Amino acid sequence: MRRKLVVGNWKMNGNRQTVLELLGAIGARTARPECDVAICPPFVYLDLCERVLSATAVALGAQDLSEHANGARTGEVSATMLADLGCRYVLLGHSERRTSHGECDETVARKTLRALAVGLNPIVCVGETWDERMSGRTYDVLSRQIRVVADALTESEHFMSFTVAYEPVWAIGSGVTATATVAQQAHAFIRQCLARYSATASQRVRILYGGSMKPDNAPELLAMPDIDGGLIGGASLDAQQFLSILDAAAGLEAVQ
Ligand SMILES: O=C[C@H](O)COP(=O)(O)O
User: Can the keyword Isomerase be found in this entry's annotation (predicted)?
Assistant: First the structure.
């Protein structure tokens, strides 16, 4: 049985005041043994978040890391620095980085190895664009994105030690969510791809859904057998919405 994981990706939003307000609301409700929770604030607020969250069950994650270990890389943040700050998770290969920063599958694979080397849990984001879906290439894209990362780990001591987030690009921030059936099909396919490496390990890997997950669609999505949690963007900036999604993941009634 895989434990559900709900991750809030704050993207490039917030300021010190809103960060503290959100943390206060989320951190106050953390006795949730039924599901794992993490938030990924902008880099500059990681330390502030760590100070507040260290006394709670909410884990800290970053939104990216450098593929390099250290050195003359102006503006970059290393895996070691994130671990030093108390991060447990890191998002890698988010479609916004693939699109706006030209990150390819090989870059994502190198970053995944960097994360694992310092004990971070990488959340590798995959997903097809609308054009790719419409031209029948969804499974080709997912299979390639998974294969490049999984291949890189084959010889590693960290074989299959990652989390996957399936985020159809057309559903991100659009208000259009994949139906639970469409999402489940993609998740089951991703698990099949992982099973080519190890059937046993593929059953352990958590696969999160991301893309306009909200309190009203979360229960149906999270009830699907291969959907092991959510990667939440917009709704994670609203404490009530985020907590309602946590309640859905924990199988509880939403608390208003
Ligand atoms: O990382 C989160 C995803 O990009 C989903 O964002 P969204 O919930 O705003 O659609």
Answer: yes
